[in-house]
Design a protein that fits this description.
Elements lengths: L1 H30 L13 H10 L10 H7 L6 E6 L5 E8 L3 H9 L6 E11 L1 H10 L5 H7 L4 E4 L7
Antiparallel strand pairs: 1-2, 2-3, 3-4
Length: about 160
């Protein structure tokens, strides 16, 4: 009887260990396929941004902004700079996928304007970002891409207006 109980217990334990390993393998494999193309969202750009970049931000944290920009299928139209409390550097950049006019209209109509702040690992001094923002009127150009691309990501969020 003891031998029967012992063999049954070992069988159950072995079965549980195999199931745990399968679940871990499943989770590990799914981390590689976290990104879903824009076309799978049927035009829902807010869901596309939230699921691919905000909810899966762990795949971008510590990496250069270039990595995120290569995956991003929506053009960035404008951006805003986030100064630190001392106004000496910028510690985040908020990218917008609509013009300022459309963003303001969406806010007035209580529609989420889809603004994605990217917090930088290391704040940057005001000089170059201010020059670019003035020169290009905060429009996202190749110059902005070249400048911001090498900055590392500390966090990614989405502005929630609670409409």
């Amino acid at each position: 009887m003891k031998l029967y109980i012992l063999s049954t217990s070992l069988t159950i334990l072995l079965f549980c260990c195999c199931n745990i390993k399968k679940q871990l393998d499943y989770k590990t494999n799914n981390l590689q396929t976290f990104y879903h193309p824009l076309k799978t969202y049927n035009g829902d750009t807010a869901r596309y941004i939230k699921e691919n970049f905000v909810l899966n931000k762990k795949n971008y944290i510590g990496k250069e902004i270039c990595v995120l920009l290569k995956d991003l299928e929506i053009p960035i139209l404008t951006y805003k700079l986030g100064p630190d409390p001392n106004m000496k550097d910028y510690f985040y950049i908020s990218i917008q996928f609509y013009s300022d006019i459309i963003v303001n209209r969406k806010i007035s109509n209580k529609i989420d304007p889809l603004i994605m702040p990217i917090v930088l690992e290391n704040p940057v001094l005001h000089d170059v970002p201010n020059q670019l923002a003035r020169k290009n009127k905060r429009q996202w150009t190749h110059e902005e891409t070249a400048y911001w691309c090498k900055q590392k990501i500390k966090d990614i969020g989405i502005v929630d207006y609670n409409f």
